[in-house]
Specification:
Helix content: 25-40%
Domain Quinolinate phosphoribosyl transferase N-terminal: 69-154
Strand content: 15-25%
Enzyme class: transferase
Pathway: Cofactor biosynthesis; NAD(+) biosynthesis; nicotinate D-ribonucleotide from quinolinate: step 1/1
Distance between the termini: 40 Å
Radius of gyration: 24 Å
Order of helices and strands: HHEEHEEEHEHEHHEHEEEHEHEHEH
Number of helices: 12
Catalytic activity: nicotinate beta-D-ribonucleotide + CO2 + diphosphate = quinolinate + 5-phospho-alpha-D-ribose 1-diphosphate + 2 H(+)
Strand order of the largest sheet: 6-13-12-9-8-7
Protein name: nicotinate-nucleotide diphosphorylase (carboxylating)
């Protein structure tokens, strides 16, 4: 069961239309778009304190401020109903569909949302892959927040899918280099794209990095300290140590061969060497993997790009981690249009649909 929190104590002003007079009848009964994790195709990762509903409320509040959508209030009759369609403006993996339903439900539980694609599906430029119908004012209020999440998540998922396919048989991981406040959302997009999640934060895995090693007085002392801490606290969790040289790898292997240790994974950092011709030399990485010889999981980090990830994946490493999956993501272009014919006409003119 996911540890993500849905309840929120955040108090916001009433920013959405609530009075209702039906002006267009639907032949289909409106279903409640509120979702449980069990109904999601790909569930978000677990986090003990993350308030997903609170994040949604904050996103809506920063957009609507203390007055709400003044343009909608000025131009859209309060009781008008419309149907708006999601339109892909470029090829990619769609992500954020489940989150979009949660946002629409937060704005107006009576909105009806339907999809022809699900999270993780491929969409082509020009494809209409979903629609939302109901009160026009509330659809437009939710529009930008929904698209901001979907475009970012779809961009992450698209890159994750491409890199995961290229990295095989190694597994692709993201890092903690996520947008502040969007840790769970970014990591959810990685899962939707076919990647795997690294640690969620500072609390769920011990990761001994270069600064810890320097402060502790060396790599062996750092691992010893972790072993003693976990034993003293009666904690069991994964432990990873960063190594930067083959000498450090050898030191880790010697220590763990002589002493019972909680270590589970060795990071091989910057052992992929860029060459002047644009290629990379992975011989050092291969040597490290051969030294470890399956005693621990291995993780390659540094100089990981779309051009290098396949070669890195052939070295025998268990995982390949890339911060670029989330810190340098290009959003996938998606729009929500009421007049889809005009939107497609403009899209063709601008080469975007």
């Amino acid at each position: 069961m996911s540890g993500v929190i849905f309840s929120s104590s955040l108090i916001l002003p009433q920013l959405y239309s609530t009075s209702r007079r039906i002006v267009k009848m639907s032949v289909t009964e409106t279903r409640n778009p509120g979702m449980s994790f069990e109904s999601m195709v790909i569930k978000p990762p677990s986090h003990p304190t993350y308030d997903l509903k609170g994040v949604i409320k904050l996103a809506l509040a920063e957009d609507s401020g203390d007055r709400g959508d003044v343009t909608c209030l000025a131009t859209i009759p309060i009781d008008m109903e419309v149907e708006a369609h999601f339109l892909a403006k470029e090829d990619g993996i769609v992500a954020g569909i489940s989150l979009a339903e949660m946002i629409f439900h937060e704005v107006d539980p009576s909105l009806k949302v339907e999809w022809s694609r699900k999270d993780g599906d491929y969409v082509q430029k020009g494809l209409q892959f979903g629609k939302v119908s109901g009160r026009a004012h509330n659809i437009v209020v939710a529009e930008r927040v929904v698209l901001n999440f979907m475009q970012r998540m779809s961009g992450i998922a698209t890159l994750a899918k491409t890199m995961a396919d290229a990295a095989h048989p190694a597994c692709i991981l993201e890092t903690r280099k996520t947008a502040p406040g969007l840790r769970l959302v970014d990591k959810w997009a990685i899962l939707i794209g076919g990647g795997r999640n690294h640690r969620m934060g500072l609390f769920d895995m011990v990761m001994i990095k270069d600064n810890h090693i320097s402060i502790a007085g060396g790599i062996t002392d750092a691992i010893k300290s972790v072993d003693q801490y976990l034993e003293g606290q009666n904690l069991q969790m994964e432990v990873e140590v960063e190594t930067r040289t083959l000498e450090e790898v050898d030191e880790v292997l010697r220590y763990t061969s002589q002493t019972k240790s909680s270590l589970t994974r060795i990071m091989l950092d910057n052992m992929v060497i860029p060459l002047s011709n644009g290629d990379v030399d992975v011989s050092m990485l291969k040597d490290a993997v051969e030294m470890i010889n399956g005693r621990f999981e291995t993780e390659a980090s540094g100089n990981v790009t779309l051009d290098t990830v396949h070669k890195i994946g052939q070295t025998g490493v268990t995982y390949i981690s890339s911060g670029a999956l989330t810190h340098s993501v290009k959003a996938l272009d998606i729009s929500l249009k009421i007049d889809t014919e005009l939107a497609l006409q403009v899209g063709r003119r601008t080469k975007r649909a």
